[in-house]
Amino acid sequence: MFTHRLVFPASVLRGRGAIKHLGAMCGRLGQRAMLVGGKRAIASVEAKVADQLEQQMVSYLGSEIFNGVCCQEEINRLADVFRTQGVEVIIATGGGKALDTAKAAGVACNIPVVTLPGIAGTCSAVTSLAFRYHQNGEFRNMMPLSSGPAAVVIDADLLATSPLQWLSAGIGDTLAKWYEYRAISDLSQLTGLAGVARTHSELCYTLIRHFAAGACFAVQDGKANNALEQVLDAIFLYAGLTSVMSNGAHTGASHALYEGFTACPKTRHIPHGLLVGYGNLCLLALENRSDDELLAALALARASAIPTQLAHIATGLTEQDLAVIIDRSLTTPDMANMPMDITFEDVRSAVERVEGLGAKIN
Ligand SMILES: [Zn+2]
């Protein structure tokens, strides 16, 4: 008998200006707060965070810069900092890697974490998972955490000022919720939990299809609009809930290809969601979906500034690089989730088909 453990964030604040509630949220969790995240993310929110904490008379202990890789060494280092500084509430900002590391470190020393995503690249802000890497940036595993964030603050005004590529990455990762879940879920085994995960993932797709172009415009313009709010809800809430409801078991060939790309030094640095977004197109080809369906997916990816050709990912990718990427993707648990056996030739021809059709919409 398998027990599902559903770990939700305790509170979610979303919408424009949500950061104005951060201080009160932190004040309920502890009296000594520390901000952790990437250098740029800290610079863009630190004044607002410090002001929020001051209003609630919570001591601000300053910030700690995340070193860029969510590896066990960095998780341990941050946990040590939190323990020795007597931190009572952690405010984590930045992208998925920074949030994952702070969440894992918070769990390690039993300190509540409030996530304040600085970019919309993944749904990491709401999940109780950490994507763990080796120190050199290669993917290691997906680590379940015993608790989720104590609070999540998704501020559309803040996220409207982040670079477009991160919104595109979030859209790519969120579209994967639908494409992958549809590919791997067994409708004959439908349960309520699986149904909720599937419905949320389909809602993600529908919202993105309607609002992606408007959301990208908002970010290029630097001003939040309704389309951006809808897409952010898809990225953080509905995709996050798919993740929670499916216990993280919602990944397939798109994420397998992403993991493959982390084995190649030329593509390792590309944001997770952009590679997953490209992987989605290969997944549809692996499923032998029609040209019409693939062309529609390619057009949506293009409208969302997601790579649709290998040359958009990196220039000078050789056949040998591609072999390393495909070989690695075939060894991942995500690829094993696919309902059919997948060979090297299957993936190679899926990539080729995406290249061919992608060229048509250029
Ligand atoms: Zn992902």
Task: Offer a quick outline of the entry.
With 362 residues, the protein is an alpha/beta fold. It is 55% helix and 12% strand.
Descriptive labels:
binds zinc ion; 362 residues; metal-binding; 2 domains; 15 helices; oxidoreductase; 12% strand; 6-stranded parallel sheet
CATH class identity of the largest domain: Mainly Alpha
CATH architecture of the largest domain: Up-down Bundle
Question: Which word captures the global form?
Answer: globular
Low-confidence stretches: none
Write down the domain tally.
2
Assess the beta-strand content as a share of residues. Answer: 5-15%
Look at the structure and name the CATH superfamily of the largest domain: Dehydroquinate synthase-like - alpha domain
Describe the biggest sheet? 6 strands, parallel
Tally of alpha and pi helices: 15
Mean pLDDT: 94
Using the coordinates shown, work out and report the CATH topology of the largest domain: Dehydroquinate synthase-like, alpha domain
Number of strands: 8
> Cα distance, first to last residue?
51 Å
Fraction of residues in H or I helices: 40-55%
Spatial strand arrangement across the major sheet: 1-8-5-4-2-3
Structural class category: alpha/beta
